[in-house]
Specification:
Blueprint lengths: L1 H22 L5 H30 L1
Helix pairs in contact: 1-2
Protein name: Polypyrimidine tract-binding protein homolog 1 isoform X3
Organism: Rhizophora mucronata (Asiatic mangrove)
Keywords: Membrane, Transmembrane, Transmembrane helix
């Protein structure tokens, strides 16, 4: 289950990264950097949360 969650998280990150790459042309580079940083933090927290939930369920 944990591997499936991680794969879903990576797929979501790929989609988000592609959409950011499309938007870099439209927004200033600093805004794109802030969006990328925020998405990285959110995705890492959600992956950690999913892992914690899986560990709690398995115990």
């Amino acid at each position: 289950m944990l591997i499936l969650r991680l794969q879903q998280g990576m797929h979501w990150m790929e989609e988000a990264y592609q959409s950011i790459c499309c938007q870099i042309m439209l927004v200033p580079l600093t805004c794109a950097f802030h969006i990328l940083l925020t998405l990285t933090l959110i995705s890492s927290f959600s992956l950690i949360g999913a892992g914690t939930i899986q560990i709690r369920i398995s115990q």
